[in-house]
């Protein structure tokens, strides 16, 4: 079973626009992470947010976490063509050591 | 830095053949794991290890074996390949041990086709 489910499954935007994707998870987590995967490549870690944090920023990325709703969002501001990729959320259960991934959101940024 | 290195990058097998996917990391990470990625299904955890000599099952362990004799290496063995094991396999490592897995570092993947 997947810990995270991303929404939407696919997103197409123009360069310069913001991209928002959401992740819902099923069980209590210790932390939630977001990863990017370019076509044919491995995943690259973007940001980690712990269960006691509500919001985190890293460059053009903003992540929120709502543990009461078991959901997280990733916002990419001022998107660029290079942001075209699949984005995955991944959660680790409290007192666990298995990072479980969702199905991903495919983002296309058109120049 | 090499990071996480997977070999081979591509492999074609016939049903029933065996093979080993190699994974090596040079970051002295205690935690290593294997995932498979299938279209539309994200990544599913096959096996993981929190240190040398310790392995455990993930979500989809059937048909796969692992061992962790050194900190650096975590090979994944397919004893009798089946078409359902056609997938892209990723090895990943982390500096955190059990309880609070942090950032995973991924290899570039091994694309396996079983005919």
Can you put this structure into words, describing what you see?
- The complex is a heterodimer of chains A (111) and B (115).
- With 111 residues, chain A is an all-beta fold.
- Chain A has strands spanning 4-7, 10-14, 19-25, 29-37, 43-50, 55-58, 61-66, 71-76, 85-93, 99-101, 105-110.
- Helix content of chain A is 0%, strand content 60%.
- In chain A, the strands form 2 sheets. In chain A, strands 2, 4, 5, 9, 10 and 11 form a 6-stranded mixed beta sheet that branches. Chain A has a 5-stranded antiparallel beta sheet with strand order 1-3-8-7-6, with no helix packed on it.
- In chain A, strand 7 (61-66) and strand 8 (71-76) form a beta hairpin.
- The mean pLDDT of chain A is 90.
- In chain B, the strands form 2 sheets. In chain B, strands 2, 4, 5, 6, 9, 10 and 11 form a 7-stranded mixed beta sheet that branches. In chain B, strands 1-3-8-7 form a 4-stranded antiparallel beta sheet, with no helix packed on it.
- Chain B is globular, with a radius of gyration of 13 Å.
- Helices cover 0% and strands 49% of the residues of chain B.
- Chains A and B meet through strand 4, strand 5, strand 9 and strand 10 of A and strand 4, strand 5 and strand 10 of B.
The pLDDT mean of chain A sits at: 90
Number of helices of chain A: 0
In which range does the helix fraction of chain B lie? under 10%
Biggest protein-protein interface? A-B, 26 and 29 residues
Residue fraction in strands of chain B: over 45%
Helix/strand order of chain A:
EEEEEEEEEEE
- Helix % of chain A is under 10%
Number of helices of chain B: 0
Radius of gyration of chain A, whole Å: 13 Å
The CA-CA distance between the termini of chain A, in Å, is 36 Å
Q: Are there runs of chain A of 5+ residues with pLDDT below 50, and where?
A: none
Overall residue-averaged pLDDT value of chain B: 92
Q: Based on DSSP secondary structure assignment, what is the total number of beta strands of chain A?
A: 11
Low-confidence runs of chain B: none
Oligomer: heterodimer
Distance between the amino and carboxyl termini of chain B: 36 Å
Return the structural class of chain B. Answer: mainly beta
State the secondary-structure class of chain A: mainly beta
């Amino acid at each position: 079973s997947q810990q995270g489910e991303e929404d939407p499954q696919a997103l197409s935007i123009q360069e310069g626009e913001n991209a928002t994707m959401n992740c819902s998870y099923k069980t209590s987590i210790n932390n939630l992470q977001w990863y990017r995967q370019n076509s044919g490549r491995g995943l690259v870690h973007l940001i980690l947010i712990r269960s006691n944090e509500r919001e985190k920023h890293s460059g053009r990325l903003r992540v929120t976490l709502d543990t009461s709703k078991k959901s997280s969002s990733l916002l990419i501001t001022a998107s660029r063509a290079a942001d075209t990729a699949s984005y995955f959320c991944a959660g680790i259960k409290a007192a666990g050591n298995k990072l479980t991934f969702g199905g991903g959101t495919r983002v296309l940024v058109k120049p | 830095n090499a990071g996480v290195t997977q070999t081979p990058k591509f492999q074609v097998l016939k049903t029933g053949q065996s093979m080993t996917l190699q994974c090596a990391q040079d970051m002295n990470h205690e935690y290593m794991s294997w995932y498979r990625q299938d279209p539309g299904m994200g990544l599913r955890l096959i096996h993981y290890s929190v240190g040398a000599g310790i392995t455990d099952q993930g979500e989809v362990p059937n048909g796969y074996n692992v061992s962790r004799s050194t900190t650096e290496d975590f090979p994944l063995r397919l004893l009798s390949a089946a078409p359902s094991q056609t997938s892209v396999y990723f090895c990943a490592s982390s500096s955190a041990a059990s309880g609070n897995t942090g950032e995973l570092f991924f290899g570039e993947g091994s694309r396996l086709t079983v005919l």
